[in-house]
Amino acid sequence: MAISTEPRTTPTDPAPSGSSQGEHEPVGPTRQAGPVVGGARSRADGPPALLVDRVTKRFVLGRRKKVVNAVDDVSLRVARGEVYGILGANGGGKSTLIRLVSTLLTIDEGRIEVFGHDVARDEMAVKRVINRVSVDAAFFKKLSPYENLVYAARLYGMPASGVRVEAERILARLGLGRSRLGEPLEQLSRGMQQKVAIARAILTSPSLLLLDEPTTGLDPRSKLDVQAFIEELREEHDATIVLTTHDLAEADRLCDRLAILDRGRLVVEGTPDELKARVRAEHGLSPTLDSVFMTWTGRSLDDDIEDEPGDEDDASLRTKGGG
Ligand SMILES: Nc1ncnc2c1ncn2[C@@H]1O[C@H](COP(=O)(O)OP(=O)(O)O)[C@@H](O)[C@H]1O
Ligand SMILES: [Mg+2]
Question: Which of 43, 68, 72, 284 could serve as 264's disulfide partner, Cβ 3.0–4.6 Å?
Fold first, then answer.
């Protein structure tokens, strides 16, 4: 896997169509600040891959100007090489946090640093080292997977030669065969499109890969393919990954550490095993992530926060959890 750390030239922003919210993936060439990523997980040297320090983001909703703390005084730290999971029900604040890290939203309070770069003061430096895959990725839908990947690669200043080979290699690892590479993207299933989105993000070798619900809504086969691929990336130790999910088994399988975000608040954090051990020791519950989630949020992961009583009158003004 070519998660390189070579400096590349500065890109311009692409604006491919297709995102329901008019957002596009923040792109930029990979430039590693400081020491090379890779080797042992949780390296102590250099700044952390991600530092979130007492961050709050509010939205004002509806005619009654109801204030929602989508992210509420959240602090966390992700080490280089770690796979860090953010678990939460719909409406919990996962995507908002990811968007704050990706510089797509401004922070109301607190600060975020990516490899030591402040997202507010040094937006371009942050964009160069991250890539985000959202539930609803933006693509040129009339172009093929291969053309979309070449476009992205060029924006990052990657030489065209070699892109095809690398793109095919990554897509093959994701279980997307060569024969589909030339078809317009709009003709591919959502699972396949999601694989192309992940391939595109990996192709540009981000130092910090943000995966916002990478498997939500995928068919079972694609879901397994994507999970296996993330697991491979994890074993290779050379990317730092922050992924959000509301799939407990996925979080358990893929993440070195987990945080649970509930109504914007980070209610607990730890390795899956630590959290399971705690629910058993402190609450006498079975050591599963289901018990963990119930214990710290008081709800099941299937409960949709946005559907709770009292929220109905603003429902039409609310954005969906994806994007
Ligand atoms: N652009 C926005 N404008 C207004 N409210 C928003 C916006 N984005 C998110 N929210 C609200 O913030 C809260 C957290 O949403 P989100 O971060 O999408 O949660 P999740 O990704 O965990 O489902 C929800 O109450 C949601 O309605
Ligand atoms: Mg979301």
Answer: 72
